[in-house]
Design goal:
With about 325 residues, the protein is of the alpha+beta class.
Length: about 325
């Protein structure tokens, strides 16, 4: 006679619990996968897609490296210089590619429209820059703020308020005692003159301008020229780029009878080290070229052709050497 199999209620309970746990695990994995897919479609370049909830890939963290402390010299306040350049978006040439930051956080010369130049505002007190950010349910939202206090109730300031309230700007500023300029905003996401306060009472007369934009992008190094005068004209057919102390921009014209190569520089001294020189092409069928040579160090050794609409920025390494600033090249043909 066969023994009767006795049902174990505890065994059945364990099986049911295991099924519930498995379903929960599969549901959780489905939810995580769904979140990653949404992240890819919303921001393909986001490192979230590669590193999950950390928000930054391991490779990116390795590139940043260790960050140590600094002395009080690096932390003291009131370090933004009084003078800042405000470039309205309408002054930018939309037909020329707006420069993007390179790996060194440098941005090349802004493509201004013909006849447009940069105008500065000299604040009455130290300008203030702040940037804030907060993680939300989906992504991190940020905001940049740049505040300037202008002294007096002058006609220029009152006209600026009337004509440019709510206007879109790119701001170039620097710190006290250094030559490096910094840039806030770009063509697609500029700084907006979001508010102003004009005050004329017993305490004083001044106007406060507040520029804002919603972005987690911080300011970059401006590796371009402060455009205050027209570009100097390079002599057609000349193989030597003559650089003057007064100008950092040079138009490179078409050859008079044939294309020509610029392979030498002149006019620089040891004091020019670190200076940025921008070349703007205006050539057509006989455009000049600049190749990798003893005088010019080009990225990946690639020759630049001075066709109309093309541009390139170099950094002065020494009186005899110009080095291309990565990411500043515009080549139209």
């Amino acid at each position: 006679m066969k023994a009767k199999k006795i049902s174990n209620p505890f065994h059945k309970g364990n099986q049911a619990a295991h099924k519930i746990q498995l379903r929960f695990f599969l549901s959780l994995m489905t939810l995580i996968t769904f979140a990653f897919v949404i992240g890819i479609f919303m921001d393909p370049s986001s490192s979230f897609c590669l590193s999950g909830f950390g928000g930054t890939s391991f490779a990116a963290m390795m590139a940043i490296g260790d960050i140590g402390d600094v002395s009080d010299r690096q932390t003291h306040g009131s370090n933004i210089a009084y003078k800042a350049y405000l470039i309205e978006i309408s002054q930018i040439n939309p037909d020329v590619t707006f420069p993007k930051p390179n790996a060194n956080r440098e941005i090349g010369t802004l493509p201004m429209k013909d006849g447009q130049y940069m105008k500065y505002f000299e604040a009455h007190d130290i300008p203030t820059y702040t940037s804030t950010g907060e993680k939300g349910d989906i992504t991190t939202s940020g905001e940049n703020n740049f505040v300037m206090i202008m002294g007096g109730m002058r006609d220029q300031l009152l006209t600026f308020i009337e004509e440019h309230a709510g206007g879109k700007f790119i701001i170039i500023f620097k710190e006290v005692g250094v030559e490096q300029w910094y840039i806030l905003g770009n063509y697609d996401r500029p700084m907006v003159l979001s508010s102003y306060e004009a005050k004329n009472d017993k305490d004083g007369r001044y106007v406060t301008f507040t520029f804002k934009r919603t972005s987690i992008d911080q300011y970059y190094k401006y590796a371009g020229d402060i455009i205050r005068v027209p570009a100097a004209k390079h002599a057609a057919d000349s193989t030597t780029l003559a650089i003057s102390p007064q100008n950092n921009r040079y138009e490179i014209p078409n050859g008079s009878s044939a294309a020509y190569t610029i392979n030498a520089i002149s006019g620089l001294t040891a004091n020019d080290k670190g200076r940025y020189i921008t070349l703007e092409g205006t050539g057509t069928d006989k455009a000049a070229t600049i190749a990798d040579s003893a005088s010019f160090t080009l990225e990946d050794g690639a020759t630049w052709t001075a066709k109309a609409g093309s541009s390139i920025t170099f950094r002065v390494m020494d009186p005899a050497t110009l080095v291309e600033v990565q990411g500043t090249r515009v080549q139209t043909a």
